[in-house]
Amino acid sequence: MRRHFQTCPDKTDIHQIPARKRGRLVQACDTCRAKKSQCDSEHPCERCSLARTECSYLRMNGSSRADTERLPMVSSTSHLPDESHAGFSHGAAPFLMSYTDPSLEATTDAFAAVGAHAEAFTDFAGTSNGPIASSYNLEGVFESLFTGIFSEIATNSTQTADDLVSPEISPNYMLALQNRAEELICNLHARYKMGSELSKPSQHSFPLDLAKNIFTGPNLSKYVSAYFTYTHPHFPFLHRPTFDALSVPTPLLLAMFLSGSFGCIPQDDAISARQFYAIGEEYIFRHLEQEVIGSDQDESHGVSTIQAALLIVSLQSCFNNPAVRYRLRVKRHPVLVASLRSMALTGGRRTRSTDVVDWNDFVSEEMKIRLVTYVYVLDCMNTVFFNSPPLMTVAEMTGDMPCATALFEASTASEFAEQDAIISRFEAQSQSVKDLVSSLLHEDSHGCKLPDCSPAEPKHLLVAIFALHSVIFVSRTSLLLSSLYQPLLRATDRWKELWDAAHARQGLEQAHFVGFTKYGAELHWLARKLIKFAHEGNTKCRYMLAMPTDSLRDLHELIKLHSNG
């Protein structure tokens, strides 16, 4: 066509054909490209619609349809995908509808679909004793199954791993990382030779050659970086500024390596690393049983092993594999909860002192507080999504709530002191989960007002709504719902008031959150539905029979049936 225009003698009133852009036409909007997600090329595309963000597809390619020239970007809130399109619903709980879809390979797909995951990239190079390579913008994303309740997403980037140059790492430091990688291989191999319960029948020997290709110094650097980029914002119970890959206990380093590798899929090594998830899980929990429960092991090592166990459970449970979930629910999670009690961590409080607080002591206390909080949320989520009876009670959650993220993320003692002068450690975050839930359930209608009993951040309210779900489950399965119907409804109403007020007070936008924090209102909707169904004796859905399961199908069917009602 362009060649004909150049030679055609009749060029009168013919508009010049615009020059074609060099290179391959963009097939996805900025958001989908950054997430390595399939874009449906609509305007706005479905993922941007669900995430309530602006879609840039037509801006990049100009007119992508015959009847359209250069349309301006429009707010995606004005166009939601049709309920039948791609299996998504625009009812009361579109995120939960997607999250519980049993046809997805992993629940993390739901976070990517709606933009509720952490974005690359953020600079995490500042470790205490060496430069872990941290500027990789790795393909894929890691969205932990649990929470995502403590951080805002990092700046979007459309670069890929191929566009970036790895930061220089000294040969000596890389050699030290290689030694640690080989240490991981030796420990996994030893665990296998001792008799692995989870090895495949077809696997007659430990895949040593494959392990040597995957567990390398460069991969250790990359996967730890990926962990802090993609997993940490969802699950921030490790202290990034003081993390040292050369000294961290082996079980925790292994858990971080495997979790980070998941964020690097579809790279070949990352895909192959999945073959070591099961043996890694077994190795970590054998350590947990030996070092923590009924032992006098050093406390710091015990805490790090519990952290490793929580990470590997989070990684494994995100896959829609009923057999794996059964093992986690029946064997692993009870051990995880028992380990917290064995170390008396559930009532952890910060040091109450008006004097200058030692930064290292604060970090140690805060990591324990966050660890307990996340294990408790994990327990509540097992109850919500799988009808699993809770193993932890609200009454035992008497410890402090996690502090402000800025305080925990302070990279030096001086920065901590500056933040501490601005952010009080002893305000709302010093109340416990028990205190907050008690306030919500209090009979006095004026028993819960902002700012008296409100947490400083929505992250605490997310813990509270999960705790209320646990209370609702116990109430309906103990035949107490009829007498607790009004108090539970009142508690959910108060929670919603606090949720809305906290967002309004802080000027927070929903799009700035990752994970479940972005969709706390949907958990509120589900809580009220479950209360009303139990009160009415509605057992049309299998989920309302409260039978433990290892599939999300029962809850998915309930949401699908009632999300528009």
UniProtKB/TrEMBL annotation:
Query: GO CC terms for this protein?
Result: chromatin; nucleus
Q: Name one Pfam family in it.
A: Fungal_trans
List, in alphabetical order, the Gene Ontology terms for molecular function in this entry. DNA-binding transcription factor activity, RNA polymerase II-specific; RNA polymerase II cis-regulatory region sequence-specific DNA binding; zinc ion binding
Key word Zinc present in the record?
yes
Origin: domain of life: Eukaryota
Primary location group: nucleus
Cited InterPro entries: VerF-like, XnlR_reg_dom, Zn2-C6_fun-type_DNA-bd_sf, Zn2Cys6_DnaBD
- Where does this polypeptide localize? Nucleus
Q: Which UniProt keywords apply?
A: Metal-binding, Nucleus, Repeat, Zinc, Zinc-finger
Return the CDD domains for the record: fungal_TF_MHR, GAL4
Q: Which SMART domains match?
A: GAL4 (SM00066)
Q: What is this protein called?
A: Zn(2)-C6 fungal-type domain-containing protein
